[in-house]
Every structure is written in structure tokens, then in C-alpha cells.
């Protein structure tokens, strides 16, 4: 595919750094790739394979198509560069085994540390070479996770914009321990080094102020927002038919965040016992690849012990363009994370007419009021969760219908991706003209 936009003098050159695979990062970058007045390069540990962009892979990068990804055409990237021959070396494989082994975290920590330093140096050389060749007007970080903070070693002549991901400033850098202390220093330096920061919650905005950042550098932009053309209500029976959900299931609970850790998926499994006791024809539908095979097996074992195998379906990561079917086929969406920012799946579910049950944490309270437009539960209380699921199922007073009406209006008013993306593009143009 030929793209002549790079010769245009009007283009703004944006280099993105992204870690791993994230549909949100992919959406954010794709919006710049599709714009005629931007030239884009992407440096990442994941091969996003953007058409009409330079795709530059770091050490250990995944070159294959991501599972469940059908957001953009594959094999159409303008340039895919491997700046190093090291992708899955024997040393890298050995270190990964050590990390997950019983003794790796104690006896061989020096080896792991040395390898991480070695990988960091290699990746910085790749990044520096890419920046010198592409000569971006701005470097855009999609998180403060590795490898994005390598940007801090670049000359200050390259302005940086940061879009925080997974609560970088709200909870990621505030835990105890040496590693967390180091991460806090990374965040502290990064937020002060950046020319602009975008956040998607008032809590994150306030947290940035707590790091001593001037308020004018922080931009509350709920980016990328919701694609209102893509996400809209769809007939439930047709959606279930497309997903192969048989008529034997009368109720479907959608769990789209993944397994393990602060996602509290074990609590959802525990709550299912009470729900299935009253509504035995309920399906708990888990999607997302977050958590991996180990967590999946652990959850499946627990479900077997509870005798509810027929009530659970594990889809893993699914194509983003199929998400409307998942929302429309379900009766309620459950996401009870202990740590969060502004989950797009919550917004997408809302605009598709699906009621939501969320974890009762400050970031979510900005948009969901318990009993007004959804339900909030303490993230680790399974009984409270099962009660709310049953409340949605029964809906004898029409309260859930009022949730649906309010939330659709809320998303259309506040989270239209077309409007929010233009704000971000405007911010990039402003920064590059300073």
C-alpha cells in the first residue's frame, strides 16, 4: 500500500510509544494514522501493524497477529522494522522461566536485574535511532509502563505528551516496596517532564496536581471515548444467535475485564452460586485475555468444585468489532475492579442499553451513582454482588429501564469519540507549535 502523506509539509509528525497489546492504545493511535494531516511512527513491544505508519518493534516484540484482534487489516503496515535481531533469544526465554519459577524471585534476582538492564539499553538504542530518523514533532506516550519511560533519556527538544493508562498516577505508583518506590520516581519525573498530560477522570486530574504539576498542563479529555456509530443497541435474540448462546440460557451476565488480581473475578465466581441457585439458567460469560492460562485454569477448577460448569463460558480475547454483540446479548455487565480509571467497556455497555454493576471506588463514582444509573458494590463482597445481579434480573419496578435511558444520554453527551478525539488532536497541534 502506497501512502504519500509523509511528503506533505502540513503534516504533524507524531511518534507513539505503547506497551503490549491494548485495544485502547490501538484505537488512539489509529485515529492519528487515519488523519491526513499526521504522519505516525509507532514504537512498541507489540506489532500493531498499522497501515500507513512506521511500525518499529522492540526486543521481545510479538510479531504475530494478536488474538481476537480484527480492528484493522493485517499485513498492511507501511514499514515494520526490527531494529535488533534479539526477539526471543535463549537468554530471554531462560529469564522468563526464571521469573515464573519458584526460586527465580529469590536466588537469581541479580541475573533477572542484569537482563532487564541489558534489554532496556537495547530498547533505548532502538528508540533513539527511530526518533533520530523519524524526527517527530511530538512523542506521545500511551502509558508510563515500560518502555515508555525510556523517552525521558531523549533530548528535551522533543516535546512529550502522556495519556495515562491503568491509573498510573492514581494507584500504580503508590504501593510499598523498592520496586514501587522506583516506579513512583518514574511517574514523578515523567509528569514534570511532559509538556501536556491527558487524564480521563477528575481523580487522576487531582492526583497529577498532587505531583506538583501546573493545572494548565493537565487536560481532562475522555479519550478515545465511544464510537457512537459502532456501539448501539442490537436485538438480543439476534445477538445471542450470532454468539451461539442457546435458548436454554434465560439470563446472561457479561464479565468483560479478565481474570485475577484487582479485577476480583474470583468474587464474581463466588457470587454466581447464589445467582444460579435462584436462576439456574444463567450464563456467566467471561471475555478478555487478561490473566492468562494460569488464572483461567484456577477459575475453571473453582467452577467445577461449585458444580456450575454449564453456567460459565470462557471466551478469552474477542474481536473489538464483535463487542456490540456481547453487550446486546447480555442482561447485565459486571466489573468490580478494585483499581480503575474510566473503563471503556462500561461506557460501551451503557450506550448499548446494558445495565452495569461496578466496583464502588472513587473513579467509578464520578459516573455511576448507586441506585440512580447503575449499581455499586464493594469489590470483595460476593453476597452484595449476587444481590445486585438478582435485582437487575427481577426489575419489578422498572428501575433498570430508567438506568438504561439515563446512561445512553450520558454517554452521548460526554463521551462522543468524534468530539473527544478532535480535542486531543488540537492539543497535539498546539504543543507542536510552541
Mean pLDDT: 84
User: Structural class per helix/strand content?
Assistant: alpha/beta
Radius of gyration: 22 Å
CATH topology-level name of the largest domain: Rossmann fold
Provide the domain count.
Answer: 2
- Helicity range: 40-55%
Shape: globular
Spatial gap, N to C terminus: 34 Å
Low-confidence stretches: 1-7, 63-78, 82-89
Task: Label this structure with key terms.
434 residues, alpha/beta, Rossmann fold, 2 domains, eight-stranded parallel beta sheet, six-stranded parallel beta sheet, 14 strands, 41% helix, 16% strand, disordered N terminus
Short description:
With 434 residues, the chain is an alpha/beta fold.
Could you walk me through the main structural features you see in this protein, from its secondary elements to its overall organization?
With 434 residues, this protein is α/β, with parallel strands linked by helices. The chain has 2 domains: 5-225 and 417-433, Glycogen Phosphorylase B (Rossmann fold), CATH 3.40.50; 236-414, Rossmann fold. It contains 15 helices and 14 strands. The strands form 2 sheets. Strands 4-3-2-1-5-6-7-8 form an 8-stranded parallel sheet, sandwiched between helices. Strands 11-10-9-12-13-14 form a 6-stranded parallel sheet, sandwiched between helices. α8 links the parallel β9 (251-255) and β10 (282-287). The chain is globular, with a radius of gyration of 22 Å. Mean pLDDT is 84; it is low at 1-7, 63-78 and 82-89.
